[in-house]
UniProtKB/TrEMBL annotation:
Keywords: Apoptosis, Cell adhesion, Cell junction, Cell membrane, Cytoplasm, Membrane, Transmembrane, Transmembrane helix. This is p53 apoptosis effector related to PMP-22. It comes from Leucopsar rothschildi. The chain crosses the membrane at residues 12-32, 77-98, 110-131, 151-172. Gene3D superfamilies: 1.20.140.150. GO terms for biological process: apoptotic process; cell-cell adhesion. It is a multi-pass membrane protein. Pfam families: PMP22_Claudin. It is found in: Cell junction, Desmosome; Cell membrane; Cytoplasm. GO terms for cellular component: cytoplasm; desmosome; plasma membrane.
């Protein structure tokens, strides 16, 4: 029977895989136009991290304005983008760290610390955006923060989880490297008469 937990050398690629998933969700958040959308028909408003678009109820063409004209728009985009770039760097460092046979655990803990920085940057961007957007941009009809904004938060949650695991992984150093001998339990015949 093979047991493969997080602290198992055979499963060392689980954490870089999760970071890759966070990168994919971050790309969807950066490129998606669903940060804010109309909740029901007629769909008259939608916004991304970069621009806000509106249209009339019977108009087919969207009229867009850049959020980069606002200081808070640049701040939200910059903080989320800086967090994303550091996340990509952490992913590359994790792949390098887990490719080396002699794993450097201080290096792994450093990746965990960088991931906490990523989470801080992303949270700042994800909080600035809805607060300032609802203050400065006139909303038409019923709106909701939608799927792309949700992917931004999902990426951040995965990053926070990975940060904890990267920071705690050095505590499992012997298990990861396979330095622990298996424990065998033996019962003498006196203690287990039913075995006779």
């Amino acid at each position: 029977m093979v047991v493969c937990g997080l602290a198992c050398w055979r499963c060392r690629w689980l954490l870089p895989l999760l970071l890759g998933l966070a990168i994919i969700m971050g790309i969807i958040a950066l490129a998606g136009r669903g940060w804010l959308e109309s909740e029901s028909e007629p769909y008259v408003q939608q916004a991304s991290l970069w621009e806000s678009c509106t249209r009339g109820e019977e108009d087919l063409n969207w009229s867009c304005e850049s959020l980069m004209d606002y200081g808070w728009g640049r701040a939200a985009a910059a903080t989320y983008l800086v967090g994303f770039v550091i996340l990509v760097i952490c992913f590359a460092l994790a792949v390098i760290a887990f490719s080396i046979e002699i794993l450097r655990f201080n290096f792994v803990r450093g990746i965990g610390g960088l991931l906490f920085v990523v989470a801080a940057f992303q949270i700042i961007g994800l909080v600035i955006y809805p607060v300032k957007f609802t203050e400065d941009i006139p909303l038409l009809g019923d709106n909701m923060f939608s799927w792309a904004y949700g992917f931004g938060w999902a990426s951040t949650v995965v990053v926070i989880g990975c940060a904890f695991f990267f920071c705690c992984l050095p505590n499992w150093e012997d298990e990861v490297l396979g330095n622990i001998k298996p424990t065998y339990y033996y019962s003498s015949p006196e203690r287990a008469p039913y075995l006779n």
